[in-house]
Write a structure and sequence with these properties.
The protein is an alpha/beta fold. Helices cover about 45% and strands about 15% of the residues. The longest helix has 19 residues.
Length: about 625
Amino acid sequence: MDTPRKVLKRYWGYDDFRGIQRDIIDSLLDGHDTLGLMPTGGGKSICFQVPALMLEGVCIVITPLIALMKDQVAHLRKRGILASAIYSGMSRQEIITVLENAIFGGVKLLYVSPERLASEIFQVKLRHMQVSFITVDEAHCISQWGYDFRPSYLEIAHIREIKPGIPVLALTATATPQVADDIQHQLAFTDGKLFRMSFQRKNLSYVVRTAPDKEAELLHILRSMGGSAIVYVRSRRRTKEIAELLTEEGIPATHYHAGLEPAVKDERQKEWHDDQVRVMVATNAFGMGIDKPDVRLVIHIDCPDSPEAYFQEAGRAGRDDQRSWAVLLYNSSDQRKLHKRVFDTFPEKETIREIYDHLAYFFEIGVGSGRGATFAFDIEKFCRVFRHFPVQAHAALQILDRCGYIHYDTDPDNRSRLFFLLNRFELNQLERLVGNEERVITALLRLYGGLFTDYCYIEESYVAVQAKLTRQEVYETLKELRRRHILDYVPQSSTPLITYTLRREDGCNIVIPPSVYEERRAQYEARINHMLRYATDSTVCRSRQLLDYFGETDSEDCGHCDVCLKKRPVGKDAREQILELLGDGRAHPISELRKLSLTKAKMDEALEWLVQEEKVFIDGGELRKK
């Protein structure tokens, strides 16, 4: 019989496991519900992929990251492992095909987005499937005390009812002790095992810079230190502004946020990944599932609202275990902005009740009616008519959703879809294709399967790339093909949907319980206050502050954050030797430092100080005096 180590060697070429990987695998193989707390880059995927290959049946992997899902499936298939995925954008027939393959043994790892768990087709097919175990990635999303709670994750408990006795593996890189306990409760762990890997990143130097002019400081840092970088900002508009500033200043940059076309996202991520541009300026939409190990710098211009978010984003630097830096730019305005987010995220209860009433006026829903009704919701128009701030209106609707009065779907599965009205033979016989029609049809047939049997979700931006046209040209061509009854085309609508899950109440009777409002608000304020303490406390090692937040209270000073470097004396002789070597103004390979009469410890200590104090500049494997 295969052992975990043999499977690891055969498919991945590694001789042995790292950290707590083997402990998690053994726990699963013994049939225990298991929670693994592992930092970014800790090798989470190995923990479920190895046992999935050892056990009979299919491993269900629940993850919200569609891009990561597709990437992992592609990598597994290259290794000869049977893997498939179900996500938005697939036709009903494609989904049925994947699920039936899983039933009949054609799939070992089945990746599923949490939103798909509630669908009737998935639950019906699941009953006929032999499941080895269920993996829940980004498991903190199931906890209402987590920083990134997603209601769709609560459906996982129902999946456990359909498949009783099947063990569950939950994995996360960001969980406080309270969240870890809640994950196990929400997933109905029985005889559960918890394995925790230290979140310490010994190669990552945390730095906080007080910067009245953050843009000037950003330029200064990027010019002082080389290597690939990510710059995080709060708003979509700022991504473009900062990327343009960097480009104008001679630092190649691009930008990324959730509102970009999928093809544009892919193109920009590839440019950055392949080092065609040095800096990615992005919102927090960028990062999960990034496979770029040599990121040397992660810089936050805007202060995140939780240590969890900061730790996750900062941790994208230095995945290759080489020295890297996570820099937070901070000034007095950050405190005011963060406290304002509390009021924006938790409007007054009377405001929430008022918005509930106004919603009913907007849709003309009388008291006692409306249950089950779904409406397209134009939040800008709503706020304009009733004079609400969009941020607060959005937050109020999310709270009403958690209270159970409505379902507020901000990202409905209503992407563009089409279906050929002609069969393949009739399409081939067409003689009157004009303009761009042939190019668009050819692109569709190359990109998508099943277009003649069922509606298929499409992305016009991908079709445009394949057809070498603009997105607008593809859109106009598809409309013309629809007019000519060659295909049926339903364009994308990004309008949110609101469904009344209960009959409409009078606003004054709306109950907003403490578990939804007061307790969650207190948790949110606590996370913000922890983040502000991290930014302003220059007496405690940065790494220790973060580790303490995640429950590691016995950690030691890292020795290389900005706080630690200010505390320790640095050998003057070591610094002078390095500066003398670089005195000719040329770039020198770091390996040349070994020629100096210094111990490795003194050399590392001196070099760390010189970089932090911006006396020297590291670019790739080379060192230069400033």
